[in-house]
Amino acid sequence: MKYVISIVLVSMLFAVDAQSLRADVQDDVHPYLTQEFFVDLGVYFPNRTVAFQVNGSLDTPNDIIDFHRDLELDRSDETFALNFGWRFGEKWELATQYFKSSGGRKAVLEEDIEWGDVVFEQGSSVSVGQDFSLLRLFFARRFESSERHEFGVGAGIHWLELGAFVEGDVIVGGGGSIFARESVRGSAPLPNFGVWYTNSISPKLAFKARLDWLDASIGDYHGALINTSLGLNYQVFEHVGVGLNFNIFDLDLSVHKSGWRGRANLTYEGLYANLSIYW
């Protein structure tokens, strides 16, 4: 019995020492590596490239329309963006990302635009618009190389919603014109694989990087996707920090729906400035 008591006492001493060591380690590394939750709230400043192709009812391929070059849509954008992370269990993490972008304007066409079965002729005054939203869910297994850095490998899903429209007067026979509006819309759940890495450069400063990719056919969609981010986060107070990241999202999507047969090519790249909360 005395040996059991001795073993229990020694185990308790080791547990206390280990707990103290973990506390010291937590004070010596960035909260991204120690806290259970984090939220990044901020503004994304991407330059965007948006192009759509909408084939006719006979599935005859039309030209892809660059909304910036052909329809004078602004390339720059400012949009709210959010990241959330939850570290649970010994080695697991759930991460989310969200942002939404939209834009529209009026333009005078410098050349014919063929959208589905409608031809908007050169010189026509048209209104155009597009919108896009991204919700990313990612589930990963953490692998720790040291107390100051870790990396993870996992899988997730990108829920994408995108749409575009062109409307204006269409010239018909006899010199007359009629008003026409043509639009497309789609939503696609695209799974992906990914990796990420976090390094605590100092107790106040952390470097984060991640990469998601996909090239697969899902139902009516075939998509090639890259979603990546590189950035730094500085801890200002115990539970509050600021971050600056460079984000790239690139999507090449083929669509074979009854109401939309064609393509969508979307690229968003730029800085993401955020306020971070960890707890």
CATH topology (fold) name: Lipocalin
**Biggest β-sheet strands, sense, barrel:** 10 strands, antiparallel, barrel
Known CATH architecture: Beta Barrel
Q: Given the structure, what is the number of helices?
A: 1
Quick one: how many beta strands?
Answer: 13
The run of helices and strands is HEEEEEEEEEEEEE
- Strands of the widest sheet, in order across it, are 1-3-4-7-8-9-10-11-12-13
Helix fraction by DSSP (H/I, runs of at least 4): under 10%
CATH 4th-level superfamily: OMPT-like
Gross geometry: elongated
Report strand %.
over 45%
Describe this protein's structure:
- It is a single chain.
- The protein is mostly beta strands and 279 residues long.
- The chain has one domain: Beta Barrel (Lipocalin), CATH 2.40.128.90.
- The protein is 10% helix and 67% strand.
- It is built from 1 helix and 13 strands.
- The strands form 2 sheets. It has a 10-stranded antiparallel β-barrel. A two-stranded antiparallel ribbon has the order 5-6.
- It is elongated, with a radius of gyration of 25 Å.
Key features of this structure:
279 residues, single chain, 1 helix, mainly beta, elongated, disordered N terminus, ten-stranded antiparallel barrel, two-stranded antiparallel sheet, Lipocalin
Q: Summarize this, please?
A:
This protein is mainly beta and 279 residues long.
Question: Helix and strand layout, with pairings?
Answer:
Blueprint: H1 2-28, E1 37-54, E2 65-66, E3 79-88, E4 92-108, E5 113-115, E6 118-120, E7 125-146, E8 149-171, E9 177-200, E10 205-218, E11 221-235, E12 240-256, E13 261-278
